[in-house]
Amino acid sequence: xxxxxxxxRGRELGDGLRQAMEEAGLxxxxxxxxxxxxPSMISMVLSGKRGTSEVDIAxxxxxxxxxxxxxxxxxALCREQDTPGWLQQHGSRLPEQLRTxxxxxxxxxxxxxxxxxxxxGLLQTAExxxxxxxxxxxxxxxxxxxxxxxxxxxxxxxSRNRPAAFAFYLHESVLRTPVGGxxxxxxxxxxxxxxxxxSYLTLRVxxxxxxxxxxxxxxxxxxxxxxxxxxxxxxxxxxxxxxxKPEEIQAYRRILGALAETALGEGQSxxxxxxxxTRFAADRERP
Length: 287
Prior knowledge:
By secondary structure, the chain is α/β, with parallel strands linked by helices. The protein is 48% helix and 14% strand. The chain is built from twelve helices and seven strands.
């Protein structure tokens, strides 16, 4: 076994092994004793900071009596644990739960997000989320309510005792697109206005008048952590991509730097959001 910086796959492997151990009613000391290894080695493997062989992982999974499907998932992670980055393909049917993303959101100490089409999921109201999800051709109607509830559950990031620091950059077109109609947009914009007043959250708007800008390639999220290197998250209709190579992270840091220089200030952004909320509310009241 060798010490290494934890990759996304290595961390997910460690999380899966920890869960298997807990479900088997074992402590780290129990597992170390039964596998005849040191408790510190078990700790390093669970943290993703120490590589291990497929044979060792198979023995661990056998000890914990892990079901076959989860066993194969964890063994596949073991085989690729030293590979940086991760493309997760889920086909035309959207996954019910983006386990890796949610885990990284929960562990992040800072999250920087740029959106060019819609309001970020973490800031969506229930009705806005329902309007977006119900229009997806890849979500069956019977799953819409469940997907909306799952998206809203991720808002608990804002209610932790020590929430992360958030920086959201929204293109002005996000605020002007009438998702769900005037009433839904008026309430969504009022929600953005309220959220922007929170001390741990920065919300700035990239104005339409700017034209071309540094993030023309699309939406992204940069997540930073206390215990391991940053990760950039990208999403498409059929897959999601996690980037972690230093040069990739630096590229997106440069984009965020450019957005910070060209976006409206926080006060101007709040004024624009409030004005558009008032306009949508007036449109709702027109016959």
